[in-house]
Amino acid sequence: MRTRLAAPRITITTIPTPKADMLDDFLIRAGLAALGTAMAAGPLGCFVVWRRMAYFGDATSHAAILGVALALGQGIAVFPGVLGTALAMALAVHALSGRGLAHDTVLGVLSHGALATGIVAVALTGGVRVNLELYLFGDVLTVTRSDLAWIWGGAALVAGVLAWRWRRLLTATLSPDLAHASGIAPRREALVLTLLLAAVVAVAIKVVGALLITALLVIPAAAARGAARTPEAMAVLAGGAAALSALGGLWVAQWLDTPVGPSIVCVAVTLFAGSLPLRLLAGTRG
Amino acid sequence: MNALLSATGLEFGPRAAPVLRDVSISVAPGEIVTLVGPNGSGKSTLLRLLIGALAPRRGKVHRARGLRIGYVPQSLVLDASLPITVRRFLDLPHRVSDADAAAALEQSGATGLEGRQMAALSGGQFQRVLLARAVLNRPQILILDEPTQGLDQPGQAAFYRRIATLRRDLGCAVLMVSHELHVVMSATDRVICLNGHVCCEGTPEVVTAAPAWRELFGTGTGGQLALYRHEHDHAHEAGGAAHHHHHHSHAEG
């Protein structure tokens, strides 16, 4: 794993092929990875906001750290490990919510429990040489071609499923009873969103890291709220805001030499702050 | 005639204190059935069992194959974080044409509200938009849970006249919960009086003459029901009513 992470820098310095592939540039790869993540996180983030699943997102993304530890311990790629534990956590929370247990306290226990266990497990399996910050805050500059394939594959899957089930998901979100009366099972739609959330966690961990994934879900959606009059518009705007944050954050990070993940989130927060006047206007307009 | 929607022997809630027990109900095509009963008598629970939002502990709900239900909930709280126009709300869960949407809004007395935000509607407008959404997709049965909550009396009367018109135009059955019996009576084919179980059932005239009915509304459930009794019975016993406590009567079941 450690050698895989180092690989891209070697590629750009030692193989200056005359007809260089665009993807050989680590900045291009980073930009593409951030864009792919944004396009999945923005629209899904709307559901996270509408359904108040932010804490749920935290629990799922923190579980990813445990996945990192397992993957390092087993010597397998990080993505499947992260996806696996995120899925397991998401399903566990989904099952608990069906019994009316997924309130703040239980989610708090699961979320921080997963984070702490994951950090301890990484320390146990990887020793001191594993840079945990990589997974807590992301390191999009070390994204490889195969990472990009995972990210874009996952993002396309999330966007595709959202588009396919859009009306059902939206009806179930508006009112479970209205959904039932129309022959839609709200629990099934909630499960779909749960699974998509796990997929986004796996996609985003390398870009913004486990600690800030929820930020990438919630903040662009919140920024889009003020300017949107329909759910569809909000989803599209959230995707746009997330993409702008991703590329803007990458640029800021290069410019100020700051970590990319937190820089992306800072740009998103700035966009949100800029959207507040719009929101107030929308409020007075009624 | 085959029932559109029926249930037999429904039981729901904790075994020790069931909300509903041994409730059987059936609605035939085109008929208007009104559920009445005191607060906490299980009316909304029964409707939610019938649409499949709740699962009964015992008993069975049977819906005709491919039954199209138009459901108007008692209330719908929209999360402020979710922006949605009336027009887009009508598109859930099936996209409808602009012409159909406009027609449904007109039928429901909500003409021209398409561009408005759902969150910005008044209580009455909101209820009429919920009704408009329910009548789209040609429902075979409209299920309305206290649809006139928050409307003033003229508003209620207008709402029930609209329901009667809709029934005539769409040919659909209507099953509704209502407290405003004095308003709804004329537009009802059958009344089912519920209090954890079916106390009595029949045409408005038969039901209001039944002992179980008198028993139930002699308990001083207050408000509209007492008012109804007061207006039509001329039995001025609202004050003394508190004395004979309600006990469940199965006689008319």
Automatic annotation (TrEMBL), chain A:
Coiled coil: none annotated. It is found in: Cell membrane. The chain crosses the membrane at residues 26-50, 62-93, 113-136, 148-166, 190-223, 235-256, 262-282. Pfam families: ABC-3 (PF00950). It is a multi-pass membrane protein. Keywords: Cell membrane, Ion transport, Membrane, Transmembrane, Transmembrane helix, Transport, Zinc, Zinc transport. Gene3D superfamilies: ABC transporter involved in vitamin B12 uptake, BtuC (1.10.3470.10). Involved in the high-affinity zinc uptake transport system. Belongs to the ABC-3 integral membrane protein family. This is High-affinity zinc uptake system membrane protein ZnuB. It comes from Limimaricola variabilis.
Automatic annotation (TrEMBL), chain B:
Keywords: ATP-binding, Cell membrane, Hydrolase, Ion transport, Membrane, Nucleotide-binding, Translocase, Transport, Zinc, Zinc transport. Residues 5-220 form the ABC transporter domain. One of its GO terms (molecular function) is ATP binding. Gene3D superfamilies: P-loop containing nucleotide triphosphate hydrolases. It comes from the Bacteria. Coiled coil: none annotated. InterPro entries: AAA+_ATPase (IPR003593), ABC_transporter-like_ATP-bd (IPR003439), ABC_transporter-like_CS (IPR017871), Metal_Ion_Import_ABC (IPR050153), P-loop_NTPase (IPR027417). It is an enzyme of class 3 (hydrolase). Pfam families: ABC_tran (PF00005). Its EC number is 3.6.3.-. This is Zinc transport system ATP-binding protein.
